[in-house]
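Listing 4. Sequential folding, example run.
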Amino acid sequence: MEVINALGRRKTSVARVYLQPGKGQIIVNERELKDYFPSEILQTTVKQALTIVKQDANYDVNVNVDGGGSKGQAEAIRLAIARALVSISNENRPALKKEGLMTRDSRMVERKKAGRRKARRRFQFSKR
C-alpha cells in the first residue's frame, strides 16, 4: 500500500498528513509527538481518530503542520488523520462521523473593528 495524504484545517492551522502502514509512530514537523505536544490532552486529541477505528498500532503518521496555536494544530491534525482513514476504507466513516471528527470546525477569530478595543469590546464610556 502506498502513502495516503490528507489535509486538515482548524482556525489558522493547516496540517498535511502522510499515512502509511507501520508500527504506530507519529512524527510532527520532524519531531516525536511527545516532544511536539507535551500536553497529554493534545496527544490524545491527535490520536483520537486512530483509536476510534482501532488502528493506532497499524499506521505510521508523518505530519507537516503550520500556523495557529497548539490546540488548533492538534485539531487540524486530527481532522487530516480522520480524512486519510476514510480514504483508506469507507467503513471507517460512520464511526468517525458519529464522534464528529469528519466535520471541519469553521470558527475563526473575529477581526478587530475600527473605533473599538477588540472585535466587539468598546472603549470605556466617560460621561464627564
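-- end of first protein; second protein begins --
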Amino acid sequence: MKIEMKMRSLDRINGLRGCVEQELKDLQRELSIESAHVVLEQEGAKSPSCRASVWLVIPGPDLHAAASDHTILAAWRKVHGELKRQIRERKSHRTLRLKAHLQLCGNPRG
C-alpha cells in the first residue's frame, strides 16, 4: 500500500504519522488497499480547528471519510472509525449478495 500523507499547519506531533500509518495497515488486513491519501490539518480561525480526511483507493468503489474536532487525534479517530464502519458495511453487503445468489441458484445437494 502506498501512503501519501499531508500535514498542514500542524506542529510536529510525536508518533502521529506512525500511528496513522499503523492504523491504515491494520485496515489493510480487512480490505485490499492500493493507496491511501491522508490530509491532517489545523486551521486556527475555525472551531473545531482540526480536520482529518482519508481517501482509500481499493478494488471497486473507493472509500472516503472526513471529520473535524478540537484535536487532530480526535479528528483522526473519527475518520478511522468511519472507515471501519464502511468496511464492515461493504463486507456485510457482499455476504448478503452471496447468500441471495446461493438461494436463487438453489441447493445443488437437495
